[in-house]
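Tokens in:
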């Protein structure tokens, strides 16, 4: 579904350039539900905005389905956004219209794209657990319910890919669990590919694969040890404390030409700056601080 290779995004302002993505590689399979984690400023939203067609990449490759997002023109991009991708933001509910009902809010974007499908709008609200509340005005719904209306809207154009940026960032744990349950269901039942950006490791531990971004590059991948395990139980089947390392195996990402990212903490601990020594001992690759030439000579 998604294929990024060497993806670069540079933001240029008057006097500075920020390289937000520095040659990022990422592949997401059709029907996969995965999460992207990373510190603030690591490039997560930049990546999501590019995948959502909201921002243009600077260089590299980025394909979503049949679309080449580096090459699309403006009218193709409109088509891409209408036909392929759905978006959910942390504060999506803020963009809803308080004086319209939940159902009317879901129908609104359908109207803007020229085709209202009331039966589908109702089905979406049923999927997100708002069957009984679809005729209530938005202002009569709780924050969590409004976020679920926003999810229904994100699905209203029947996307093939759903992008969610901190979708549970401003809701309580119960609503957060409900939202993850909705994602899981639509992922299973209609095979929708879902990419979730989050800071929340508990949330991330509920998906099969988590990709960590550091400084605009994919650095580590966490793959679930037991993907067959039923995730429907309250704690995702992992115990309440199910952190990433407990549930997933961590792999460092090595790109096609052999580049990998060594965590800054490791480098600092060993005092490695611009250079290091690398040795292959037949079973391991060992990176050590460079030996001083003087030492070698003595
Ligand atoms: N429009 C912009 N103009 C200039 N710099 C930008 C712009 N958008 C993002 N950046 C910079 O790009 C880098 C990556 O930002 P991005 O928002 O993608 O990070 P993030 O991982 O989503 O962070 P957060 O978790 O805080 O949302 C940051 O250094 C940020 O300051």
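Residues out:
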């Amino acid at each position: 579904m998604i294929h990024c290779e060497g993806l670069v995004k540079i933001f240029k302002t008057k006097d500075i350039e920020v390289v937000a993505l520095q040659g990022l590689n990422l592949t997401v399979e059709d029907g996969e539900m995965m999460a992207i984690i990373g510190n603030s400023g690591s490039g997560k939203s930049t990546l999501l905005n590019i995948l959502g067609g909201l921002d243009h990449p600077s260089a590299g490759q980025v394909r979503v389905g049949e679309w080449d997002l580096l090459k699309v023109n403006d009218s193709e991009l409109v088509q891409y956004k209408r036909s392929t991708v759905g978006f959910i933001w942390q504060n999506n509910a803020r963009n809803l219209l308080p004086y319209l009902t939940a159902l009317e809010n879901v129908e609104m974007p359908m109207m803007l794209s020229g085709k209202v499908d009331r039966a589908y709008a109702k089905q979406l609200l049923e999927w997100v657990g708002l069957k009984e509340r679809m005729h209530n005005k938005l202002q009569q719904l709780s924050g969590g319910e409004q976020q679920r209306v926003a999810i229904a809207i994100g699905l209203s154009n029947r996307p093939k890919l759903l992008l969610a940026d901190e979708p549970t960032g401003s809701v309580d744990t119960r609503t957060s669990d409900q939202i993850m349950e909705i994602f899981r269901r639509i992922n299973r039942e209609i095979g929708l590919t879902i990419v979730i950006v989050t800071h929340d490791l508990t949330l991330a531990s509920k998906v099969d694969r988590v990709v960590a971004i550091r400084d605009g590059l994919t650095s580590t991948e966490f793959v679930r040890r037991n993907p067959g395990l039923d995730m429907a139980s309250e704690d995702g089947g992992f115990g309440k404390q199910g952190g990433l390392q407990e549930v997933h195996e961590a792999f460092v990402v090595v790109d096609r030409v052999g580049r990998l990212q060594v965590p800054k903490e490791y480098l600092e601990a060993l005092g490695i700056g611009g250079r290091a020594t690398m040795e292959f001992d037949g079973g391991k690759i060992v990176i050590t601080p460079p030996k001083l030439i003087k030492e070698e000579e003595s």
